[in-house]
Prior knowledge:
The structure holds two protein chains of two kinds.
Chain A: H1 2-23, H2 25-28, H3 32-57, H4 66-83, H5 88-110, H6 115-135, H7 137-140, E1 146-147, H8 158-180, H9 183-193, H10 195-199, H11 205-231, E2 233-234, H12 241-254, H13 261-279, H14 283-297, H15 301-317
Antiparallel strand pairs in A: 1-2
Helix pairs in contact in A: 3-8, 3-11, 3-12, 3-13, 4-5, 4-11, 5-11, 8-11, 9-11, 12-13, 12-15, 13-14
Chain B: E1 5-14, E2 17-27, E3 32-36, H1 43-50, E4 58-63, E5 66-67, H2 73-78, E6 81-84, H3 96-107, H4 122-135, H5 150-162, E7 168-172, H6 180-196, E8 200-204, H7 208-214, E9 217-222, E10 225-230, H8 232-237, H9 239-246
Helix pairs in contact in B: 3-4, 3-5, 6-7
Amino acid sequence: MTKETAMNFKAATLWGMIVVLFALVPVLASSPYQINLASHVLIWSLFAVSFNMLWGVTGMLSLGQALFYGLGAYSVGLLVNYLGSAWYLPGIGIGLLAAALLAFFLGLLVIRVGGVYFTMLTLAFGQLAWQITFKWYDFTGGDDGIQGIMPPGLLGNKTAYYYFLLVLVLVSIWILKRMAYSPFGLILRCVQQNPDRVRFLGRRVRRNQLRIYIISSFFSALAGSLMVGVDSSIHTDMLYWTTSGEVILMSVLGGINQFFGPFVGAVAIILIEDYVGAYTEYWSLIIGTIMLVMVLGFPKGLVGEARRLIMRFGRTETGR
Amino acid sequence: MAPILELKAVDKSFGGLHVTSKVSFAVMPGEISAIIGPNGAGKTTLFNQITGHLRSDAGAIFFKEENIVGRSPQQIVARGMGRAFQIASIFPDETVLDNIRAACLSRLGQTRKFWRSVVTFRQATEDAHAILDSLGLDSQADRLAFELAHGDQKLLDIGIALALKPALLLLDEPTAGMSPDERQHTRALIKKLWKAFDLTLVFIEHDMDMVFGIAQVVRVLQQGALLAEGTPEEIRANKQVITAYLGEDF
């Protein structure tokens, strides 16, 4: 029991630090740009964490989660654009509902196949959605996207919007974390490690895969819809396969077997893009080099390797 | 008393290869029995048919008086059948405790709970510790399953099946790949578990000490067909079995 209490205390401290750190951003920020940057960090963190519930936890490498990220964004963007800014919040709700429904029906199709075929199918559907959005210029704005999408009322204020998304992102990540450590999360990890054995526990493998596919897609859509108010725009890049690839990079960098791995990975990649991007347009070269070093030298990712170090030190201290 | 498991002329072929043909036998509740036979006799295939992993081409399999041919493994497990595998089938990156706890949660119908941490599920956790205790693995509860010795991984696999509190437990070569010491330990342990958990137990085994030491009934498969069935003494004296499998000097 004392071990559990100590772990709860550590977890609560970690959460407290994250909340305080991000809550202080608008107070300490010297320019609106820093609030914008923190918003990007938070939204990508949510996107990466929800993606990793699919990949790191359940072992389903989707290369098409941008489909849901984009769906969330375009639901809000198009509704506001055609019906007015009062539709901003309902747009988020409609996007989430649409994402859950689409994930259900798409999931019935793509989960029938495993491994690399699943990855290829998710990529195919993702690119299909991108192509449609890209070509349907009259409705979606095509390559130009749609600019000037403003949230209504108080949320039009950048600081207020930041706190709005801060709460939603942190609550979402908290929900996903609880899920990861619950019996449902345990079964998902079991599905990854030994699906045959899961069947002989009396559990359905595909049904659990479908559940997490829907949940992951739901939160990906939330991330996308929140991004609309940050950049005041939607664009087809949000649906492009490189957006799906970005969360893979974040997960690998942070560590796919750690719940907070993708979170840390997202923070690192967004900050690197920002700071290195200010000096050179070849920032992706830096990201590429870092990824190479990580994958070859530190496959457990930033969080995984840090945890290994802590455990090693902990063991020498107690003399074990 | 009605048999808990009854096979009636069960068949399976892969292409032209007849792997099991017209196998019939009945297992009584509370029985501990062995299936023996040379490699390729169809023993594991038969297990796969019974557990729903493979669909039988012909015949009927009655489990608790209901024909289960065509049912999925999930449905058959839900009716009370458990299975351990020839090659330990465990969740390597989970702790030893969580391997068993996952099975306990599944039996208790709690695997859809997504809000509370697994450690707060008291019933499942207590049951899991009890099972680890009976296997002698409780001191290793917090280790990751892949770190266990080979023999202990096999025991963990049995533990996962036990955690489902099955009415019928099938063990596929529980001592395969074990050292002589581990074999002896496992032999005694399985007999103890059979009594302690009130199991009906069917095991496939090549270890004759185990077969003739703890089985009440021995069934011999040869080329997919049931060659003989009887008490260990009867099987030991059976001329056909000696020629086909045991050998003259047994």
